């Protein structure tokens, strides 16, 4: 199972060159490629890339790409104490880490703070 963080999701959906070749090869054609419902919310709040046109476009683009939606549960999101190094970090990133951990998923991200955790299941999406 592969979960994309919000920035990586946008890069994947827009074929952005910042998504690294190794990550691109792994993601294209993957049958277990997920995005979080939380990424739709984060995108809508921050509007990373206006070219997709907001929430409905991101959701429909992800669905059209064959991605699966991962909806968070309370059990997943109450694991903040498992990641004390993220206590002051972006709450969306923290939630995605908790989701990935709960589901034993690889989390693809370009976030330096998340990558600095040196967890084998957090993967640099720029490689």
Helix content: 40-55%
CATH superfamily: 5'-nuclease
Can you count the beta strands?
A: 5
Mean pLDDT across every amino acid position: 90
* Biggest β-sheet description: 5 strands, parallel
CATH architecture descriptor name? 3-Layer(aba) Sandwich
Given as residue ranges, the uncertain stretches (5+ residues, pLDDT < 50) are none
Q: Strand order of the main beta sheet, please?
A: 3-2-1-4-5
Overall SS class: alpha/beta
Total number of helices: 7
Task: Describe this entry's structure for a reader.
The chain is globular. The longest helix is centred in the last third of the chain and has 12 residues, at 91-102. A 5-stranded parallel sheet has the order 3-2-1-4-5. The chain contains 7 helices and 5 strands, in the order E-H-H-E-H-H-E-H-H-E-H-E. 44% of the residues lie in helices and 13% in strands. With 127 residues, the chain is of the alpha/beta class. The chain has one domain (2-124): 5'-nuclease (Rossmann fold, 3-Layer(aba) Sandwich), CATH 3.40.50.1010. The mean pLDDT is 90. It has helices at residues 6-14, 21-27, 37-46, 55-64, 74-77, 91-102, 112-115, and strands spanning 2-4, 33-36, 68-70, 106-109, 122-124.
